[in-house]
Design brief:
This protein has about 250 residues and is an alpha/beta fold. It has one domain (about 1-250): TIM Barrel, CATH 3.20.20. It has eleven helices and ten strands. The chain has helices at about 1-10, 50-60, 65-80, 95-100, 100-110, 125-130, 130-145, 160-165, 185-200, 215-225, 245-250, and strands at about 15-25, 30-40, 45-50, 85-90, 120-125, 150-155, 170-175, 205-210, 230, 240. Strands 1-2-4-5-6-7-8-9 form an eight-stranded mixed beta barrel, surrounded by five helices. A hairpin with a 5-residue loop joins β1 (about 15-25) and β2 (about 30-40). α3 packs parallel to α5 (about 100-110). The longest helix has 16 residues, at about 65-80. The model has no long low-confidence stretch (mean pLDDT about 95). The structure holds guanosine-5'-monophosphate (2 copies) and sodium ion. One guanosine-5'-monophosphate binds near residues 90, 209 and 237. It comes from Devosia oryziradicis. This is EAL domain-containing protein.
């Protein structure tokens, strides 16, 4: 209860911040986008993990306020990045009924003077299972404007395959659990290779999440058709102020 009240206050009073983690193109090794990740530094308890406060926000309905803020802030930050680097934002299950995602996106893009093609929306399967109709119509409207729609944490849910053709995805983010073991386990590598080629067959941009070692990256290069990578090997999520320099340094 206490934490819920504190979260409400943090949202109102600017207590949330964003960290960003780059996604790199495998062929060019350049940063193509950065994913916005919400951070909450509690005045007494210190950093609270998103795995704690995002579910809390979903329970209380505060998630819409967080998502609206994340969209506006992430797009505003993106404007100051060199080149054409895009920004990815996570949209939660409850957002599809709790807010007008399309309206918030439109407002944020026009305030920043940024084209829709610089924005990616990441959704997990749970969002799609719980609100299939609304999610479909909102995502189709955004995709029609040129916003990239990514299916996040792919492979961890229940029935992802059916969503791939029913919804306007242009990107598939393979969950990091598929990458974790590929150096030690030949079957893990074959599974990853096959999930990636499934995505490629469907004309999706395929991303591997959670790349931590150069051994993993070498295997991705040699054995899979994965086009983009994200993970600690390239960069941890970093504060917004560090991102312009990170992009210059990596590119
Ligand atoms: O930031 P971290 O790397 O610890 O993220 C943990 C989880 O919290 C991730 O699965 C991520 O998708 C989720 N998360 C982080 N920021 C946001 C956000 O702004 N909105 C939503 N809905 N989820 C987020
Ligand atoms: O897609 P999702 O929003 O779940 O991904 C973001 C989450 O993944 C964040 O919690 C981020 O800190 C975490 N993450 C990013 N790169 C890595 C990595 O290389 N290894 C691990 N274990 N977690 C990572
Ligand atoms: Na994500």
């Amino acid at each position: 209860q206490r934490l819920k009240a504190d979260l409400r206050l943090a949202i109102q009073e600017g207590g949330l911040t964003l960290a960003f983690q780059p996604l790199l193109d495998v062929a060019t090794r350049k940063v193509v986008a950065c994913e916005a990740l919400a951070r909450w530094n509690h005045p007494e308890l210190g950093m609270i993990a998103p795995s704690v406060f995002i579910p809390l926000a979903e329970e209380t309905g505060l998630i819409s306020d967080i998502t609206a803020w994340v969209i506006a802030e992430a797009i505003s930050q993106c404007r100051s990045w060199p080149g054409e680097v895009g920004v990815a934002v996570n949209v939660s299950t409850r957002d599809f009924r709790g807010m007008d995602v399309e309206k918030v996106v439109d407002a944020a893009l026009s305030a920043a003077g940024l084209p829709p093609t610089r924005l990616e929306i990441e959704v997990t399967e749970t969002a799609l299972i719980e609100e299939p109709e609304i999610a479909k119509s909102v995502l189709e409207a955004l995709a029609a404007k040129g916003v990239e729609i990514a299916l996040d944490d792919f492979g961890t849910g229940y029935s992802s395959l059916s969503y791939l053709s029913a919804l306007p995805f242009s990107k598939l983010k393979i969950d990091r659990s598929f990458v974790q073991d590929i150096e030690a386990n030949e079957r893990s590598l074959r599974l990853l290779t096959n999930v990636a080629s499934l995505g490629r067959d469907l004309d999706l941009t395929v991303v591997a999440e959670g790349v931590e070692t150069s051994g993993q990256f070498d295997l991705l290069l040699a054995k899979t058709q994965i086009q983009q990578v994200q993970g600690y090997l390239f960069s941890r999520p970093l504060p917004a102020r560090d991102i312009p320099e990170l992009i210059v340094h990596l590119n």
